[in-house]
Amino acid sequence: MSPMSSAHHNNTDYNDLPNPFITLAGEHILSASDWLEKRRPELLELFRKHIYGRAPLDKPGSLRFSIQKEMRGALGGIADIQQINILFDGRGERGCIQLLLVTPRAALHPIPCFLLINNRGKESIEPGDIRSTPFLPLERILARGYAAAAFDVADVDPDEHDGFHNGVHGIFDPPDLPRPPDAWGTIAAWAWGASRVMDYLETDPRLAHDCIAVLGHSRGGKTALWCGAQDERFALAISNESGCTGAALARGATGETIRQINEAFPHWFCSAYRRYNDRPDLLPVDQHLLLALMAPRRVYVASAQADAWADPKNEFLACVYASPVYRLFGLQGLESYEMPAVHQPLHAGYIGYHLRAGEHDLTVYDWERFMDYTDRHWNV
Ligand code: GTR
């Protein structure tokens, strides 16, 4: 495929990217409705089967919510804070995701909301000692009229390779071994957890349910993209430096490779993904198609200049190669196929992008740009 002529790349690998518009059966997709009816479900299935694994259930029948804590006028008077327990049962065991929900007191309803997939430790989102941090700059978020929600990934599945006994794998997986090659990994479990949080957010009448973004950094960014791809209730998925098996194309990778990620984190993806350790060229998908699964909703990819491991160039190129899918919907994906300079965000299209100076991290700069983007497009 050659969706663009102006992106700078010399690597012929990119010419072999799977074409968004040709189905496995060789059928050409020519309309947005065909994309949604035929190609989108096929791609979701390919990502499940070969990369993230298959969640054994969607919303559990046992799902229920209980408000545990409420604090009004917190953070120096500007915020109302709630902690909500999201509870579910399976095989006799109970799971609980503790959701932190922080809303601005001064807001006009309905309030747009960012849901952060938190991978910085549960203590950082405890309502009792909540404070603004660069990773979750609550004061800036509230001052700009947004609500912030956050849950910790460990509530869904601890980030360790224990043979899939703890977390939601232990709660929901059939006990018989061996696990099938497409059994869900930890990233898929966290994405499932973010959807259960959305189940709750939808019930809060103060929130703008059509303006909820799912956002994560690094492993959390991979999760945000896989969650948003599947769960169409999210209007926007934001990937901050998600890199390998997040926003970055696997073909032609200059940062982390599939082999490196599978060896360092054997629990993140399904075991079938290991087949591609040294052969990304054999994958029936690549990560531009993960971004394209957000269409016609929005997606935002953020890279950092010194974060070579997350492969800014391939993160940007995934946005470039996802853009033709937006065009099929009559929408602009990226506004430009030239990689922008640092601190020159591309905000006009349905795919937002920025390159920040500095290292691998989620910073106030990143948050401010995400909110610039949603201010511009959400009419808030
Ligand atoms: C790294 C991993 C990356 C990224 C990162 C993070 O060690 O190789 O894929 O997920 O951790 O989550 O900070």
Could you characterize the architecture of this molecule?
This protein is α/β, with parallel strands linked by helices and 380 residues long. The protein is built from 11 helices and 9 strands. It has a 9-stranded mixed beta sheet, with helices on both faces. The model is unreliable at 1-12 (pLDDT under 50). Beta-D-galactopyranuronic acid (GTR) binds next to helix 8.
Brief summary of the model shown:
The chain has 380 residues and is an alpha/beta fold. Helices cover 30% and strands 20% of the residues.
Task: Provide key terms for this protein.
380 residues; alpha/beta; nine-stranded mixed sheet; 11 helices; 9 strands; globular; disordered N terminus; binds beta-D-galactopyranuronic acid
List the helices and strands and how they pair.
Blueprint: H1 32-52, E1 64-73, H2 74-77, E2 79-90, E3 93-104, E4 111-118, H3 138-143, E5 147-152, H4 153-156, H5 167-172, H6 186-201, E6 207-217, H7 219-230, E7 236-240, H8 258-264, H9 287-292, E8 298-304, H10 312-328, E9 351-356, H11 364-378
Parallel strand pairs: 4-5, 4-6, 6-7, 7-8, 8-9
Antiparallel strand pairs: 1-2, 2-3, 3-5
Helix pairs in contact: 6-7
Bound molecules: beta-D-galactopyranuronic acid (GTR).
Beta-D-galactopyranuronic acid binds at residues 218-219, 243-244, 256, 261, 264.
